Amino acid sequence: MQLQIGDTFSTSREVTDDLVRRFAELSGDFNPIHLDEEFAAKTRFGRRIAHGMLTGAFISAVLGQEFAERKIVYLSQTMRFTAPVFIGDTVTVTSVISHIREDKGIVTLETTARNQQGETLVTGESKVMILE
To answer: Is 34 a catalytic residue?
Structure first.
């Protein structure tokens, strides 16, 4: 499969209470904004929000799925968090190839995460090296 600028990869995932709690265990991030309904109700969000890096993991999953036929190394990821991810949201991550450096096998992708209403949650850029 030949990669081209404009190739688009996407996946969706529901953010559940269990997923957020397992991510807290895995990451060691037990911030009450993620885990404590009473605490979160008093914040500007009015309810619990998911860890920002959980969305980052969803971006990694898109790359892992779509590049499964190739061996890749994740070189970098930028993320700008523009809206919170709430428990119960379905997050769709889309990555679009924006640049290919053929001589080094480096692929740059623009990444966006949106919720079920189409609201942008995260924007950023990923770079991977193809090891083929």
So the answer is: yes
- The tens digit of pLDDT for each residue in 69-93 reads 778 899 999 999 999 999 999 999 9
Whether 51 sits among the annotated catalytic residues: the reply is: no
Range of the domain at 116: 8-130
Say what the pTM is: 0.91
- Catalytic residue, from 5, 6, 33, 34: name it: 34
User: What CATH number should be reported for the domain holding residue 92?
Assistant: 3.10.129.10
Would you call 52 a catalytic residue per the annotation?
yes
For residue 49, the 8-state DSSP code is B
Question: In this predicted structure, what is the pLDDT of residue 131?
Answer: 86
Alpha-carbon distances, residue 14 vs 34, 40, 62, 72, 88 (angstroms): 15, 20, 14, 26, 6
